Amino acid sequence: MDSSIFNNPAFSGMSPEKLQFLMSFAQKDKPTSMKDVMPFLMANMKQAKEQQLDFTKPEIQIICDLLCKNLPKEERERVQKVMSLLSLNIPN
Question: Is the pTM of this model over 0.70?
Fold first, then answer.
């Protein structure tokens, strides 16, 4: 895991519960194909919801960056587009 991602300003003032969730997410093996990304993402979103965790747009961007890190460029762009659509109603 690249711990430098946690130096992002979006983490300042983040609750310990959210930080723990993101650290756990960062340590998981990420899918390497688009067909596996969405089920993985949805399962993690469900887990966050069950833990009553809401993420801001900058935090969601960090999640997307973690998720896309090892994907080919075309698939990374598709995931980012989907994440962008999913985050339309998320507060800043």
Answer: no
